[in-house]
Specification:
Blueprint lengths: L1 H5 L5 E4 L5 H15 L6 E6 L8 H8 L3 E4 L11 H12 L4 E5 L6 H11 L4 E5 L3
Parallel strand pairs: 1-2, 2-3, 4-5
Helix pairs in contact: 4-5
Length: 131
């Protein structure tokens, strides 16, 4: 993640706001930003619903992003959590390329995001994490 924020041609980084890799990565970038001596990319968090519907442990870090986009979609099991898939598509659609921190779980939202990105021909860099 720190490599991404120090690349001169990266002007925006989008996060999904999820508990885990999204929040940890955003937190690390925000921490690094305090000591950086150059302008860092704009940090955007895209949420499927509203901040209040996110896990409470993500609220503080999410609020520190440069922009928080709340899609306002209902999160329900009945539609197989379509709101999360819509959030992932929104991230991919706003991006030129995707860097996915993924643990190899094919049932995860990250895998869903990777699959969608590949289907719309966006370059994907997969950084494998340990489960």
């Amino acid at each position: 993640m720190l490599w991404l924020v120090t690349e001169l041609d990266v002007d925006t980084i989008c996060f999904g706001g999820a508990k885990g890799a999204d929040t940890i990565a955003l937190s690390k970038v925000l921490e690094f930003r305090k000591s950086a001596r150059f302008v860092l990319p704009k940090l955007i968090v895209i949420l499927p619903n509203k901040l209040e519907s996110q896990p409470p442990e993500t609220h503080y870090t999410t609020r520190l992003a440069d922009e928080v986009i709340e899609l306002g979609l209902r999160i329900t099991a009945e539609d197989h959590y379509e709101a999360y898939h819509a959030r992932n598509r929104s991230i991919v659609d706003r991006s030129d390329e995707i860097v996915a921190f993924w643990n190899g779980d094919y049932a995860s939202g990250t895998w869903s995001c990777i699959k969608y990105a590949k289907s719309v021909k966006k370059p994907v860099e997969e950084i494998r994490l340990q489960k």
